Amino acid sequence: MELGYKLSTEGFSPQEIIRQAIAVEQAGFDFVEISDHFHPWLDEQGHSGFTWSILGAIAAKTDRVGLVTGVTCPTMRYHPAIIAQAAATMALISDGRFTLGVGSGENLNEHIIGEGWPGARIRHRMLREALEIIRLLWQGGYRSYDGEFLSLEDAQVFDLPEALPRIVVASGGKAAASIAAELGDGIFATEPRPDLVEQYTSKGGNGVRYAEVPLAFAASETDAAAAVLEKEPWFATGWPVMSELPNPKNFTAASSTVREEDVLKQFACGSDVERHLEVIGQFTDAGFDHLVLHNGGPDPDAFLEFFAGELKGRLG
């Protein structure tokens, strides 16, 4: 099992994200996962730096920790050719530490280009084409592609690493899990759902299995839950809603009824190691082997101290 830490570009400035990544490596994590958004989920979060610039700085300022996008949508805001080039470059400048996490996207980030927001089935077909284009370009040479939704004209990525990055596909349902098995090197989830792992493996997937684990460290459960309610109440809307709403103000409205008890049901809140282990165990029991600890608490450094001093030793 490998352990990662979620870097939330929506909640912190680019400079702070880079500082946190350095601290995460020092705390003993195996990798960092960084979100790739244009907008924050809520105005209260107040940030949304450009992930690929931040990744380059993290690669330059760290030595060991792996780097993962969690996740990039390579179909609308980015053309897959750009992501093929960006991921190859990241693999080179990080000395092979980069993993490309991809997904079918959220309206929150992709509607900005003015092309509308397709339905889920269309988004999955677009993602399939995007992955085919990325794989094609990573073969080297000049390549073209004519798809139903995406095209490529006489393009070549000149700087390719000897070992290509893994591609991990975000899967909120069985359709995406099947795409992960066919065109990816792993699966990525945000819920402790064994059915997603089972779908992935039943379709031939035998790669890594990433999942984000909801934790919130603070001196008390109440303080931890209050921090989640302030900055991350959108979690309770669920993925079918999270993928569809276009703006932070919509997430504010959709999550206005979330209460402390809702947070406590899903997040490990407070400083009780046993509760944190209980929530983490839901994901290991579901079959995930790369766990991304997502701290919704108010103090990232306090969580890193808690991880290094109390939690990590219990997860070995």
UniProtKB/TrEMBL annotation:
<protein>
    <submittedName>
        <fullName>LLM class F420-dependent oxidoreductase</fullName>
    </submittedName>
</protein>
<dbReference type="InterPro" id="IPR050564">
    <property type="entry name" value="F420-G6PD/mer"/>
</dbReference>
<dbReference type="InterPro" id="IPR036661">
    <property type="entry name" value="Luciferase-like_sf"/>
</dbReference>
<keyword id="KW-0560">Oxidoreductase</keyword>
<feature type="domain" description="Luciferase-like">
    <location>
        <begin position="7"/>
        <end position="200"/>
    </location>
</feature>
<dbReference type="InterPro" id="IPR019945">
    <property type="entry name" value="F420_G6P_DH-rel"/>
</dbReference>
<dbReference type="InterPro" id="IPR011251">
    <property type="entry name" value="Luciferase-like_dom"/>
</dbReference>
<dbReference type="Pfam" id="PF00296">
    <property type="entry name" value="Bac_luciferase"/>
</dbReference>
